[in-house]
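Section 5: illustrative case.
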C-alpha cells in the first residue's frame, strides 16, 4: 500500500484544531457535521492521514474527544508542546506527553485513541445518552440523515471495510481475502461485530492474532494493538454500554465472553486501534493483518437448569424497555411455561414459549395480561419445563 501520510504531522493538527476552535466559538453553527462523513467513512485510516478531501477536517472529533474528556486547556497545552518539539513527530510526541499529564498518568496516547474509536462508533443512530460526544445523536448531513461509521466504502474496484460482521459460530477469519481489505492502519480504528450470540449454549472465546511488528524504511516497529471489547443493545438506547475494562494490547490474546454476559446484550464489538512503538521517527504503517478463531465452546446440557430472575428487584421505570428475564437450559428444546402470581395467589400474567434451541430466554415486562403495570410488591414466578418446576420470588418496583 502507498504512503498517504505527511510525516510533518503538524499540518493535520492545524486543520483538526482549527475546525475545533470554530466549533467552540460558534457552537450553534455545526459546520463540522459536513466534514464528518469523510472521516467516519475512512476511520480505519491513520489519524494523521493526508488524502484529498475533508478527512482532516472531520478528524476534528479527535480534539473534541480530548476537550470533552479533559477540558479545553489540553488543546492549548498540545499547541505549546508542538512549539517545543523538533523533528517530524510533533503529533505523537506532543499528544503522548499532554495526555499523560492531563489524565494523571491513567491514559497513554494509544489508550486515548482506543477510547476515541469507541466514541466514534456511538454516533448517529447508535448514539447513547450520557455517553461519548455531547452532540453524537445530532450528527446529521444536509438531508437530515444520521452520520455514523459505515460497514464498508468502495475504493476503485474493491471495498475497504471499517466494520466486519459475524453471526454464525464457530468460524475462522483472516484479514486478507482477494481484493477485499479488512485491516486498520496504525492509529486508525477497526471494528469486529458479533451478533446472534444468544444462540450459544456456553461462553464465546475469541483467539486474536495480530501482526506483532512491522518493518518500514529500515525501521522495525512493535505493534501495540490496544483492543477493547464492548457490548450494547441497539434497540434499548437507555441501557448502559458494557465496556470491558481490560485493554488487550498484545499481538496474541484470548478474550472470553461469559455466557451470562452473552444473554444480556445483542451485539458485541471488538474495537481494534493499533499503535506503534518506538514513538520516535514514526512513519506510515499499513497492512496490519490479523486473524480470528472463534471456537465452539458449547458443552452438552444434561439436565434442565432454570436461572434466577434478573434483574431483581425489577424497576419498571428504569428498565428502558428491557424485560425481567429467566434463562432456561435444557437437553432438548421443549415448551417453557411462565406464570406470575401475587403473594396472595392471584395470577397476573401467563405465557408459554415454544423453545427452538437448548438455551432460551423467557421474560416479563411487569405488566398484567390487560397490559397495565402491576403494583409494586413481591411476586411469585412459576417456571415449568417438562417435568421440572421452579418457584421464585421477585420484587417489582414501578
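Designed sequence:
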Amino acid at each position: 500500500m502507498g504512503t498517504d501520510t505527511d510525516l510533518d504531522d503538524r499540518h493535520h493538527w492545524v486543520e483538526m484544531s482549527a475546525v475545533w476552535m470554530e466549533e467552540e466559538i460558534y457552537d450553534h453553527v455545526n459546520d463540522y457535521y459536513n466534514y464528518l462523513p469523510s472521516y467516519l467513512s475512512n476511520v480505519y485510516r491513520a489519524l494523521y492521514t493526508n488524502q484529498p478531501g475533508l478527512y482532516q477536517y472531520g478528524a476534528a472529533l479527535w480534539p473534541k474527544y480530548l476537550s470533552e474528556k479533559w477540558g479545553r486547556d489540553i488543546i492549548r497545552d498540545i499547541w505549546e508542546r508542538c512549539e517545543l518539539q523538533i523533528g517530524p513527530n510533533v503529533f505523537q510526541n506532543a499528544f503522548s506527553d499532554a495526555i499523560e499529564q492531563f489524565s494523571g498518568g491513567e491514559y497513554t496516547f494509544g489508550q486515548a485513541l482506543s477510547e476515541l474509536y469507541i466514541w466514534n462508533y456511538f454516533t448517529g443512530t447508535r448514539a447513547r445518552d450520557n455517553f461519548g460526544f455531547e452532540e453524537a445523536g445530532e450528527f446529521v448531513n444536509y438531508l437530515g440523515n444520521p452520520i455514523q461509521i459505515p460497514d464498508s466504502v468502495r475504493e476503485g474496484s474493491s471495498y475497504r471495510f471499517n466494520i466486519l460482521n459475524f453471526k454464525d459460530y464457530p468460524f475462522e477469519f483472516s484479514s486478507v481475502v482477494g481484493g477485499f481489505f479488512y485491516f486498520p492502519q496504525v492509529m486508525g480504528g477497526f471494528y469486529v461485530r458479533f451478533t446472534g450470540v444468544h444462540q450459544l449454549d456456553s461462553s464465546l472465546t475469541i483467539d486474536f492474532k495480530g501482526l506483532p511488528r512491522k518493518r518500514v524504511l529500515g525501521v522495525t516497529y512493535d505493534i501495540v494493538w490496544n483492543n477493547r471489547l464492548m457490548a450494547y443493545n441497539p434497540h434499548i438506547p437507555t441501557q448502559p454500554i458494557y465496556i470491558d475494562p481490560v485493554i488487550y494490547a498484545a499481538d496474541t490474546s484470548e478474550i472470553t465472553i461469559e455466557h451470562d454476559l452473552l444473554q444480556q446484550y445483542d451485539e458485541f464489538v471488538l474495537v481494534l486501534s493499533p499503535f506503534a512503538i518506538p514513538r520516535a521517527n514514526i512513519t506510515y504503517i499499513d497492512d496490519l493483518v490479523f486473524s480470528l478463531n472463534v471456537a465452539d465452546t458449547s458443552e452438552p446440557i444434561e439436565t434442565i437448569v432454570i436461572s434466577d430472575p434478573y434483574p431483581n428487584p425489577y424497576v419498571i421505570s428504569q428498565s428502558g424497555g428491557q424485560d425481567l428475564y429467566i434463562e432456561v437450559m435444557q437437553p432438548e428444546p421443549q415448551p417453557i411455561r411462565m406464570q406470575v402470581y401475587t403473594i396472595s395467589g392471584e395470577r397476573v400474567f401467563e405465557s408459554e414459549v415454544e423453545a427452538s434451541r437448548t438455551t432460551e430466554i423467557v421474560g416479563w415486562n411487569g405488566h398484567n395480561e390487560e397490559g397495565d403495570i402491576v403494583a409494586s410488591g413481591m411476586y411469585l414466578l412459576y417456571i415449568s419445563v417438562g417435568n421440572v418446576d421452579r418457584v421464585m420470588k421477585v420484587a417489582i418496583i414501578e
